[in-house]
Amino acid sequence: MQPLNLLPISNPNSPPSMLIPTSSASADTMLVRSEPHIIHSSSSSTILLVQDDDDDSKIETKPLLTRAFSYSSSSSSSSSNLVMQQRRRRIASANSLLSGAVEGCRREMGKAASDTYVVTRLSFRLLRYLGVGYRWIARFLALGCYAMLLIPGFIQVGYYYFYSSQVLRGIVYGDQPRNRLDLYLPKNMNGPKPVVAFVTGGAWIIGYKAWGSLLGQQLSERDIIVACIDYRNFPQGTISDMVKDASQGISFVCNKIAEYGGDPNRIYLMGQSAGAHIATCALLEQAIKETGAEPRASWSTTQIKTYFGLSGGYNILKLVDHFHSRGLYRSIFLSIMEGEQGLRQYSPELMVQDPNTKNAVSLLPPMVLFHGTADYSIPCDSRSGPPLHTLIYCTIQLINKEMCHSFWD
């Protein structure tokens, strides 16, 4: 017989009872009887309460929870608790994801609202500078009509810019507003690729990194990485801010482009219109820093193999009257260039002629300047230059073959 744990049962108002243990195949049974009669039970774990009356004997059977059943109940309870805990975790995780998505949406909406406010505020500020002049209004309307005619081409370039997997947009290179750049990557990235850092134009007012998307597409199809550098425009910043932003963008390309498959030993700098002026100023400023007592910055002019300037203005002092006649009034242009002193300080043609910068000029990379004879935005000098498709061809030849044929007689 298996050992049993019997609990004493007593009732002071009843006669002595007998506790009779029994055993079965399934579980133990305890018989409680007021008289010494034995009742056998083959059912599972029951208590048989037998009481004698004068007329008849009544038998009441009640279930007894066995140890096995209690264990099963405990296991079921534990499993239920575990399921409930897992359900709570899932609900908490879902709530956390939902709250994170809502918070991210709020941040994006807040950023969009902030950017809209900044653009609106700067637009009104620019209008205050411009005043109500018929020249810039006429130029603006002409630009709008020109843009309408180019909408089919804009759609194609815009689709490539926003949906192509080869375009990495909005890479941060600094902590100032608009310190962003776009990377155009070739399809074939089987080795380090040459890199062109491009500074777009825009009259120092409407420049934007997306303006270089066509050039980026053309060069990336020829296994060249293109980095279009954005910078603060006026009135968000003046010329010193623009040059500083361009310099930081160039520094990012020189030091980080290897992480994107670029060859740090084959980096070329290019600027167009106002971007050509800003990029040239950044090169000269960096060369002057390297020859001075200032600590060396995060990049060096020796890291730039060649500079390409397209339709740039390099003698700002001579262009003030021309810009004024075309609607970029003298007062606005002086504000962009930080006064009369800035006209000379940010004129690369005058800077390289200064005897104090002789050592700095010797550090500059080879420079190839292009300018079209039919360019009325910034008039060319006595030297003529090829159009954009010739610039692209020359760039490819120089990068791939380390040489460029002369386009001038």
UniProtKB/TrEMBL annotation:
It is a multi-pass membrane protein. It comes from the Eukaryota. It is an enzyme of class 3 (hydrolase). It catalyses: [protein]-C-terminal S-[(2E,6E)-farnesyl]-L-cysteine methyl ester + H2O = [protein]-C-terminal S-[(2E,6E)-farnesyl]-L-cysteine + methanol + H(+). The chain crosses the membrane at residues 136-162. Its EC number is 3.1.1.n2. The keyword Endoplasmic reticulum applies. InterPro entries: AB_hydrolase_fold, BD-FAE-like_dom, GDXG_lipolytic_enzyme. Coiled coil: none annotated. Pfam families: BD-FAE (PF20434). It is found in: Endoplasmic reticulum membrane; Golgi apparatus membrane. Keywords: Endoplasmic reticulum, Golgi apparatus, Hydrolase, Membrane, Transmembrane, Transmembrane helix. Belongs to the AB hydrolase superfamily. Isoprenylcysteine methylesterase family. This is protein-S-isoprenylcysteine alpha-carbonyl methylesterase. It comes from Solanum tuberosum.
